[in-house]
């Protein structure tokens, strides 16, 4: 698997990914608001602009990557690395968000994506990475722990209990 920056080459696969998640009632975690965009080109512009300190559209600069299986060039997941933490991200969201297609789960892709993203965090100068997940998301908690995550605490965000993990790089 490789992590690639979003491009027009993957527009159809990203739109299919979005459709699949919405049809399944799943959350598009780590997709940088993909669910809000009907037009791929507008989402792509948003994502690429948000990598630049001067043109970012959100409160923190972030990088989005497509997790693509090399054997068949299939998009299996999307991962977002936030370069810094604002108050909300510190409490509930963390440095990294990610999602994996339903039919590709339980195959180790999330672990592989997270390990690769942690390497990118090192390159960005982030030495301590915060990851969060809903307390009932056992698969995500296992992935985070596998990659070195240490549970700091649990916090309530509205009606959801959120676990906060730190990984030292």
Supply database-style keywords.
three-stranded antiparallel beta sheet; 7 strands; Aminopeptidase; 169 residues; globular; Acyl_CoA_acyltransferase; Acetyltransferase; GNAT_dom; alpha+beta
Number of domains: 1
Residue ranges: pLDDT <50 for 5 or more in a row?
A: none
SSE ordering? EHHEEHEHEHEE
> What spatial form do the alpha-carbon principal axes imply?
globular
Name the average pLDDT: 95
Strand order of the largest sheet: 1-2-3-4
Oligomer: single chain
For CATH, the homologous superfamily is named as Gcn5-related N-acetyltransferase (GNAT)
Secondary-structure content class: alpha+beta
Counted beta strands: 7
For the termini, the CA-CA separation is: 22 Å
Mind describing the biggest β-sheet? 4 strands, antiparallel
Rg of Cα set: 15 Å
Q: Examine the secondary-structure arrangement and name the CATH architecture.
A: 3-Layer(aba) Sandwich
Quickly count the helices: 5
Q: Do you know the CATH topology?
A: Aminopeptidase
Question: Helix amount, in percent?
Answer: 25-40%
CATH class: Alpha Beta
Proportion in β-strands: 25-35%
Task: Write up what this structure looks like.
With 169 residues, the chain is of the alpha+beta class. The chain has a single domain (2-126), classed as 3-Layer(aba) Sandwich (Aminopeptidase). The protein is built from five helices and seven strands, in the order βααββαβαβαββ. The chain has helices at 11-24, 40-49, 87-93, 109-123, 138-146; strands at 2-4, 62-69, 74-82, 96-100, 128-134, 150-157, 160-168. The radius of gyration is 15 Å and the shape is globular.
